[in-house]
Prior knowledge:
Blueprint: E1 29-30, H1 36-49, E2 54-61, E3 64-70, H2 77-94, E4 106-108, E5 114-116, H3 118-127
Parallel strand pairs: 1-2
Antiparallel strand pairs: 2-3, 4-5
Helix pairs in contact: 1-2
Amino acid sequence: MPRDSTDEPTDEPTDEPTLPWSRGAWAVVECGAGWWPLVRALNDDLRALSPGYQVSQVKEKFGTLRFYAGTPDGTEAAVNEAVQARITAAEQLSAVTCERCGAPGSTRGGAWIRTLCDLHQADAEQRKFPWTT
């Protein structure tokens, strides 16, 4: 379930992405459901580039997606570079995608930096979430 969910019903999906977690990883996608399509697409791309890749952590930090993953030992340098380039592109796309719903958004400051659309920013301000004060 997304970290910023409430007891109230939302339009957010509840089907968290399935990822190839590395041994000992927390195995939880720690970001809002609006970024789950980005995570799913990234996973598909990385599996195509390096079928044995593994994820160690997925989270929100400073208002953007952070996706930590590795490839198997012996993977060619060009493949590793392509994997890192795709991760960087997804992280950059998260900076303009609402973490709650996936609509176009912008990074918003406050006590907590978040990337939200206008609607979810207004909702956050009304609820006085810590990242809006």
